[in-house]
Request: fold
Amino acid sequence: MIEVRELTKRYGATTAVDALTFTVRPGRVTGFLGPNGSGKSTTLRMILGLHTPTSGSVTVAGRPFTDRPRGLRHVGALLDAGDAHGGRTARAHLAVLARSNRIPRSRVDEVLEEVGLAAAAGRRIGGFSLGMRQRLGIAGALLGDPPVLLFDEPLNGLDPEGVKWVRGLFRGLAAEGRTVFVSSHLMTEMEHTADELVVIGRGALIAAESLAEFAARGRRLSVTVGTPDRARLTELLLAEGAEVREEAGALTVTGLPAARVGELALEHRVLLDQLTTRTASLEEAFMELTADSVEYLAGDKR
Amino acid sequence: MTTLDLPVASVAEPRARFRDLVASEWLKLWSLRSTGWSLLLGAIVVVAFNFGTAWDHYRYFLQYDEASRAEFVANDMALWDAFTYNAALVLILSSAAMGAVAVVGEYGSGLIRTTFTAVPARGALMAAKVLVVTVVQAAFGAVVAGASFWSTQAMLSARDIGLPITHPGAARIVVASALLAPVCAVAGMAIGALLRRGANSVVGAVVLLLLLPAVLTDRRHLTAVLAHATPLHAWQRLADAGPPAEELFPWSAGGAWLVYALWTLGGAAVTVLAVRRRDQ
Reply:
């Protein structure tokens, strides 16, 4: 269980994290979503005590993480796949971590096996691909068999097989009753992994709810209607209180279900040649929610 | 679906021990190939500087006139070859750099975040690191100073001018030269912990340990005191062989040993304290 209360971090005049409050519960995978630069990594670092909050507090299992003299048995974290020295072998890197926390050496080979790096254990990390480094970072997080796990963008650089494996791993860890907190800037990555979502933008909380609730919130139905008599149908739909846009020779209707659009057309003998319901995807819901808080917007909109 | 009330195994944790951190740092140091190579290269260069000087004296000794030879023996000049000023400069540079790298190597790679997440007791971790680096550098210094003394005196003995370790002042030169390595390595660690960047730290070490002592003159009282407070001058004081040189502001060997001790303790304190509150 991770409890974040009014957590704030300022660097000079910049507010990286702004009064964040949320709770990450055990037994499920919680996705931590936000556009680039929204403060996800800063928040994760404050959870781990690497950065000191300007104000507010954060506890892991009821205590600030920095109160623990050794961390690996309490929280396993993968912050950045690059957080290792390229000159060491994968086995040596993990052996150093294990030794500092009094974890038996045999555990190193176990986790290397688990993440699929057993064959590369004796190779130096400098020669690893990003995907291999991610696996090594995950191995490090698993070393202490901790009840709380944090992962910052763990899917970067993984091949499709690796992505599938990581998703299965996260679900498995959560099913064992652990707290699994995974950050990402892509909704699609979370769609098949997370049960709960914490969404932030510009350091402030936008949503903290289940994936289903989040999906419902952004699920604005629209109906695409094709008819030769667009002007007449538009008039009828507007009279019913719908919003109508004309695009690509068809009408896009929001605010009325497809069934009601069909009824109206029948009543007034308007010929329809297309009637399709479209659902906004989770990705669209996420984009819509965070649109106001995107830090670095591409394009020429001013 | 997920089960929300699965019991999370309560964390069974063995007591945190300092010696595990020391063992971990030991492993961390030696699991880098560069550690062994840097030590070997540093040792070869330092010993070569000393041996080269002794070889020079060996080679040209017979060409000296009678007075020069007598002066060489009377002034215990064989001990000057046991550890030369140039060798001391190289030793200071290499040990300070190795000390700095032990710290900034973690910052440069980002490993420091992994380290402090595994060990939130940052001060204890840095203390363990200081201990490991100090012990390794003390051994390195002992090997280098011992090999320098043995090889130079053996060479000079071929001209019957080599001196034994029991000769007055000889042991002090070896010990002072050996300890110069850990003193400067800990100073390097402190600079690394403060500056956190490789290039900055090496420049900082060169300025503090080599340039500063070179520009501080011992002609005025204030600058003499400041100069004496540097490891290089302390080493010069301790490695001074033969009859005492005439100095405007003479100081005792005890003072020089104290300078060694204070740099080590101060460097260790800075290294441990520098990481405590800062964002990593």
About this structure: Chain A has two domains: 2-216, 221-279.
